[in-house]
Automatic annotation (TrEMBL):
The keyword Oxidoreductase applies. This is Gfo/Idh/MocA family oxidoreductase. It comes from the Bacteria. Pfam families: GFO_IDH_MocA, GFO_IDH_MocA_C3.
């Protein structure tokens, strides 16, 4: 049996519960401690999941912690990850990994100097639905991908999140908050991006919270909330990416990819599972049979039905990769290229100019049925 690496978590907010509850599904990792600047939050999570509650300083000194998961707000991802690396521990960050190329390159240099690994969410592209699409592409069923469309549109987080403020500040907005799921999946399916261009607007300068406990409170909006982008990939494909928190309803599919030999309809990259539809040339569109992929099996209630949720899959893959001496799929290179794309889109939205990517990366290794079972 593979060695289990000890995991500590910094940041005990909403997303931490998913990591703590789903980690036992995976081999190679063991949750051991959590920390937060709010010690009451750390103690509450520790009690809930039978962990140690630590100060951030003590967690970084703990001998039984090999990887620290950074679940802080995006604005401090860089500073916290830097502290983790400087303490001599591997780090796995929630998305977005960092908010600038300069921050990412600094962390990369620090990690390489100490022989440490950096990983980053999202890991939803490892889900059964998206890996089925990956297999279709790798087997040549679509031919060369030539274009595509992506739409991630809604009306913001102020209607459900208890503290939605940071979603509307620099470092968030729909591109940096939800964009990582779509852009990371596009990179793993098509490859790296060459250049981008975009238009960005901020229709509402403030939002009114309708969720409890702060219903009625107004919050400022200091980042674009509607961004329409165009991505040119290194293989020549051109994909439209429309993101907005100013849309009440729409009829677009989350993601469609068009190839020389067919079209594939990709489910929402924010989730691990979903329905994959496919057509070869002029044949009717058909729903593909459910794939027997472990990370596509519904395991959690969502709304009126069940969904597949396997967050921490990327963390577990990174831990096993450290032990086995192989590259991990949710890699720093992949995350940094996604940040390059996202910040390029925002910069283009500000300037009206095309923005060339300064980074590139390899497509992460596919995670087929057998690899996922192992």
């Amino acid at each position: 049996m593979a060695k289990k690496l000890g995991i500590g978590v910094i940041g005990c907010g909403n997303i931490s519960k998913a990591y703590f509850s789903l980690a036992p599904l995976f081999r190679g990792i063991e949750m051991r401690a959590c920390a937060d600047i709010n010690m009451d939050a750390a103690r509450a999570r520790a009690k809930e999941f039978k962990l140690r509650a630590e100060t951030v300083e003590d967690l970084l000194k703990a001998d039984d912690i090999d990887i620290v998961v950074n679940l802080t707000i995006p604005a401090v991802h860089y500073e916290v990850s830097k502290r983790v690396l400087d303490a001599g521990k591997h780090v796995y960050s929630e998305k977005p990994f960092v908010l600038s190329l300069e921050e990412g390159q600094d962390l990369k240099a620090r990690a390489e100097k100490k022989g440490l690994r950096i990983g980053s969410a999202p890991d939803t592209f490892l889900g059964g639905a998206h890996q089925l699409v990956r297999e279709l592409i790798d087997e040549g069923k679509l031919g060369k991908i030539t274009s595509g469309t992506c739409h991630v549109m809604g009306h913001g987080m102020e209607h459900w999140h208890p503290n939605p403020d940071f979603f509307f500040q620099p470092g968030a907005g729909p591109v940096l908050d939800i964009g990582p799921y779509y852009i990371t999946n596009l990179i793993q399916l098509i490859g790296p991006v060459k250049q981008v261009v975009a238009f960005a607007t901020t229709p509402a300068k403030e939002r009114t919270i309708s969720s409890k406990p702060r219903a009625g409170e107004k919050i400022p909006v200091n980042t674009p909330t509607t961004i329409h982008g165009l991505l040119e990939f290194e293989n020549g494909a051109v994909v439209t990416l429309n993101t907005s928190w100013d849309v009440w309803a729409h009829g677009h599919a989350p993601m469609e990819l068009y190839g020389e030999a067919g079209t594939v309809f990709v489910p929402d990259p924010n989730f691990f599972g979903g329905e994959v539809r496919f057509t070869e040339e002029g044949k009717p569109v058909k729903k593909l049979p459910k794939w027997k992929h472990p990370l596509g099996v519904p395991n959690e209630m969502h709304g009126q039905g069940m969904m597949a949720n396997y967050r921490t899959a990327g963390l577990a893959d990174m831990a096993l990769a450290i032990v086995e001496g192989r590259p991990h799929r949710c890699s720093m290179e992949l995350a940094l290229h996604a940040v390059d794309v996202m910040t390029g889109i925002l910069r283009s939205g500000e300037t009206g100019k095309f923005v060339a990517m300064q980074t590139t990366c390899e497509r992460p290794a596919a995670l087929g049925v057998q690899e996922a079972k192992e």
